[in-house]
Amino acid sequence: MKDFLAWLIPVLQDIGLKLLASVLLFIGGRLIIKSTVNALRIGKASKKMEPTVAHFLANFVNIVLYIILAVTVIAIMGVPMASVVAAIASAGVAIGLALQGALSNFAGGIMILLFHPFRVGDFIEVDGFSGTVIDIDVFYTFLKTGDNKSVTVPNGNIMGNSVVNYSANGTRRVDLDIGVAYGSDIDRVKAILLEEGAKHELVLKDPEPFCRLMEQGDSSLNFTLRVWTATANYWQVRFDVLEAVHKRLEGEGIEIPFPQMDVHVKQ
């Protein structure tokens, strides 16, 4: 019994010291990690970043530091590091296979945050959806459509598709296609369309409005009218000019035809 106690007491002392050191290291490490992450979130550097990037960076650093702390605590407890590394590698492979879609979204989120194909507040079209970007997460991008629907788009899908950013530039061109009846005075129609496009207060003078006969359609002469405006005014200008053109052509007695077919019956 004395021999057993003589062996057991040093072992318990060694385990106790390792356990105490591990507990103290864990508590101290948590405090350091918390202070570091808070410094990242409220520091001067984070204020210069976009909120989404700063939030992601703080969370990423938090996870990495906790992994380092856990490995260090395990090493102090006397667990062979080779076994720990092998276990982490095996778990990583298993998790990677199980979460392929999530990892694809994560990688897409990183690319979006790094290269900024769009930002919060931009109006974009992607993956069959169009709307205003209300939030960008590391896994998903959240859109609000024009009819107030919320759309959640996986970032992996975004980076695998073409993205149209309607808000990237300060100005946009409004293209209107107008059809008039055959026999109409082409020069008169062009003058009317240019006048109605140019007189709108939100239409830019430079580039100046453009109008040409685009094609001879099956039932009408089709003109294209192009005017430029600020991106934020695109829809208002489109609606207003289209309505003004219709009223003006109607007032001038210029027919706006509908598709029709002439049938000749032979006796």
Structure description:
This protein has 267 residues and is an alpha+beta fold. The protein has three domains: 2-98, Helix Hairpins, CATH 1.10.287.1260; 118-165, Roll (SH3 type barrels); 171-251, Alpha-Beta Plaits. The chain contains eight helices and eight strands. It has helices at residues 2-42, 44-48, 51-76, 81-98, 100-115, 155-159, 186-198, 234-251; strands at residues 123-126, 129-136, 140-144, 150-154, 164-165, 171-180, 210-216, 221-230. A five-stranded antiparallel sheet has the order 4-3-2-1-5. Strands 6-8-7 form a three-stranded antiparallel sheet, with helices on one face. α1 runs antiparallel to α3 (51-76) and α7 (186-198) packs across α8. It is elongated. It starts with a helix and ends in a 16-residue tail after the last helix.
Write a brief structural summary:
This protein is of the alpha+beta class and 267 residues long. The chain has eight helices and eight strands. The protein folds into three domains: 2-98, Helix Hairpins (Orthogonal Bundle), CATH 1.10.287.1260; 118-165, SH3 type barrels (Roll); 171-251, Alpha-Beta Plaits (2-Layer Sandwich), CATH 3.30.70.100.
